[in-house]
TrEMBL record, chain B:
Uncharacterized protein TP-0789 domain ranges (all copies): 82-262
Top-level taxon: Bacteria
Coiled coil: none
A family per Pfam: LolA_like
Organism lineage string: Bacteria, Pseudomonadati, Pseudomonadota, Gammaproteobacteria, Pseudomonadales
Organism the protein comes from: Pseudomonas saponiphila
Keyword Manganese annotated: no
Name of this protein: Outer membrane lipoprotein-sorting protein
Keyword annotations of the record: Lipoprotein, Signal
Signal sequence, renumbered to the chain: 1-24
Transmembrane segments: none
Keyword presence, Lipoprotein: yes
Length: 411, 267
């Protein structure tokens, strides 16, 4: 981790200025005329409500009321010759329970992107997605996930970052300078989806620093039917470990050096995918190695115009004694996604997740994303968790079987 | 003749047979000629951009519109195909979704999707390329560029097509996992424009018909059909594509067609 840090915006401007100066010298004297700017503003209102099938575990707050969210997406595009600028301003307002630790207002994304030829520069609050699996994305290390909403949240917290990207050889290299990070948030009291008490003060160990500068890099190359991404990260781990302190837990962040690999290979009806992660800490008791493999089988027009994908994934972790607890070790997923290809692009997903060593610990999930019109969508998801009482984590999850309804309107 | 000599003679004969060019019938040569002339008439376009209204028409007549921007890029080498980038602009629920297609010769196209809700780039399985493009009657296979090296050809007949005279050429896909057993193309004999295409499914039944009209000439050389209608004969559904604001040689770089940059959305 780097502890001396100039402002990211100043650094970005300096870097881009140097690039621009060099290119201006190479260009002809005639200055390019800016093209007409484009602006777009859109909004989305989403309402979500949970219904549980059973009472919560002892001591767990039953209150997980619905949420209401208003999101605005604004972007400004401007081009000068080969130079393109994109400004993205996506604020969000979240209305939820008072005990919800999430702020009412936050930035989904807020960044400036400059592109010229094969180079790009992005600075601001960004989100990066590299992973290829359905169940978890091991190699996604830039952003933090909050485990406050549902059992497998997909919403990430944005990250203050400077990203430089460029074509390099047959692929694309991206370099990241990450300014601090957003620690995972927890309910103060045990709650649905989080039946444990976590102290508000986290510990930063072995070089970790909430406000430090972290670095990351990714090289992506696509060769025929194979896509490969190789990533490197050095900085504060986005996933905390925990230590017990009385009847509560304390989140622990360590500085990690990690290498990640993600790959997709398509052949015939099959899509094979892999993610692997090797994470090292100066105290080897925190070291971790994880592997996820999966495949998808595509059947076009399986039912009328609908396309079907059958999905299988398996996860294997080797975590040392103090490493962050993994809930995925030796789990597998068997699933199916049906893209209905109707006028509003509805889809249905059915999944069966189980612990390979004890199939009595399993989870059945179904979600329907139904387009009602160009602007209105309804989401219905159901999760049924079964536990054989052989695993404490499954026992806790078993009381969180639920049905969730979501309605969203875009305009 | 001993065994060794017999084996050697057999090997030589096999090699000779293997090297002998397959003799094309006059119908095959003629079919190929039309396709090559069509391809040659479009050489040197460099890149194009267009705004497209895609209208889904249900059998009962209900209509749904989507709007998108389409960029295509002519690669320098004819050994690989062109590249196509589609960006949805409306309605809101699919805005900023993107499809990137790298056309290949005899290999099957490479296709990536960018899903803005997840901000993820997703690779599409080879067999999925024959799946529906955004709920329309077009498949990803139809949207990618039609590369001449991807088919076996056979001229079937000449016949009138509107005011013009057309050559009907049967094209059999050579790339894997096509959704079609054959594609019949009506080439205008005067300028080699494609006027109509019929798609036959894997069982050989007529599946879809694409009609191209509203042709406009750009840069004094390049024809583009501004109106396309794809009719699905099995479901009775149709998809209309209406192009506007067509531009050639916009200067867009090949870099904009990299899967790693799909999420940037500056093009």
């Amino acid at each position: 981790m780097i502890t001396r840090r100039p402002g990211l915006a100043a650094l970005a401007l300096g870097l881009w200025g140097a690039v621009g100066q060099a290119q201006a010298q190479a260009r002809s004297p005639a200055q390019p005329e800016p093209q007409a700017a484009e602006q777009e503003l859109s909004a989305k209102i989403a309402l979500k409500r949970y219904f549980f099938t059973s009472s919560p575990a002892d001591g767990v707050d039953d209150d997980l009321p619905g949420t209401a969210q208003l999101g605005l997406d604004y972007q400004y595009l401007q081009s000068w010759d080969s130079l393109r600028l994109r400004l993205v301003v996506n604020p969000r307002y979240l209305e939820s329970a008072k005990r919800d630790p999430r702020p009412d207002f936050y930035w989904d994304e807020l960044f400036v992107l400059l592109e010229q030829d094969s180079r790009e520069l992005k600075v601001g609050r960004i989100k990066e997605h590299w992973g290829v699996m359905e169940t978890r994305q091991l190699v996604d290390v830039i952003n933090t996930y909050d485990n406050l909403d549902g059992l497998q949240p997909e919403e990430k917290l944005s990250q203050k970052a400077l990203k430089l990207g460029s074509s390099l050889g047959p692929g694309h290299l991206s370099l990241y300078l990450l300014d601090g990070f957003e620690p995972v948030q927890f309910y103060r009291e045990p709650a649905r989806f989080a039946a444990y008490r976590v102290q508000s003060q986290a510990e930063y160990l072995h070089g970790a620093d909430r406000d430090g500068l972290d670095v990351a890099a990714r090289y992506f190359v696509s060769v025929s039917d194979l896509d490969i991404g190789l990533s490197y990260f050095k900085g504060t781990n986005r996933a905390p470990a925990f230590r017990t302190a009385g009847d509560s837990l304390v989140a622990q962040y360590t500085e990690v050096t990690q290498w990640g690999l993600d790959a997709i290979w398509v052949r015939e009806q099959w899509l094979y995918k892999l993610e692997a992660l090797d994470q090292r800490v100066s105290d080897s008791a925190y070291n971790s190695r994880k592997l996820s493999v999966g495949l998808e089988y595509a059947i076009t027009r399986a039912w009328r115009d609908a396309d079907l994908s059958l999905i299988g994934e398996y996860h294997r972790d080797q975590d040392q004694r103090l490493a962050p607890v993994s809930i995925f070790d030796r789990k597998f997923l068997l699933g199916a996604r049906l893209e209905l290809n109707d006028a509003h692009l509805s889809s249905l997903f059915l999944g069966y997740t189980a612990q390979a060593s004890d199939l009595g610990n399993n989870m059945l999930s179904a979600s329907l994303d139904l387009g009602l019109s160009d602007a209105l969508r309804a989401g219905v998801s159901a999760v049924l968790v079964n536990s054989s009482s052989s695993d404490a984590v499954w026992d806790v999850l078993a009381s969180d079987s639920h049905l969730a309804l979501e309605l969203s309107y875009s305009f | 003749m001993n065994h060794k000599a017999a084996f050697s003679a057999c090997l030589s004969l096999c090699a000779l047979l293997h090297q002998a060019p397959t003799l094309a019938s006059p119908e095959q040569e003629l079919g190929q000629q039309y396709a090559h002339r069509w391809r040659d008439s479009d050489l040197g376009y460099q890149d194009t951009s267009a705004r497209i209204r895609l209208t889904l028409v249900e059998k009962e007549g209900a209509r749904t519109d989507r709007f998108m921007r389409m960029n295509s890029f002519e690669t320098a080498s004819t050994a690989v195909g062109d590249k196509v980038l589609l960006t949805f602009e409306a309605p809101e629920n699919i805005k900023n979704s993107r499809v990137l297609i790298h056309s290949k010769i005899k290999e099957g196209d490479q296709v990536w999707l960018y899903l803005p809700a997840l901000k993820r780039v997703k690779r599409v399985a080879a067999a999925d390329r024959s799946g529906s493009f955004s709920g329309s009657e077009f498949s990803y296979e139809d949207i990618g560029s039609m590369e001449v090296g991807n088919y076996d050809y056979q001229w079937l007949r000449d016949e009138p097509c509107g005011d013009a005279q057309c050559a009907v050429v049967k094209q059999v896909p050579l790339y894997p996992y096509s959704g079609y057993s054959s594609i019949w193309v009506w080439y205008n004999k005067a300028d080699y424009r494609q006027m109509k295409t019929e798609y036959y499914d894997r069982k050989g039944s007529k599946f879809k018909t694409l009609t191209l009209d509203g042709y406009q000439l750009f840069l004094g050389r390049y024809w583009r059909a501004l109106n396309m209608t794809m009719v699905n004969h099995i479901t009775g559904r149709q998809t209309l594509l209406v192009s506007s604001d067509v531009q050639f040689r916009t200067g867009i770089g090949e870099d904009a067609f990299e899967p790693a940059r799909l999420g940037n959305l500056t093009q």
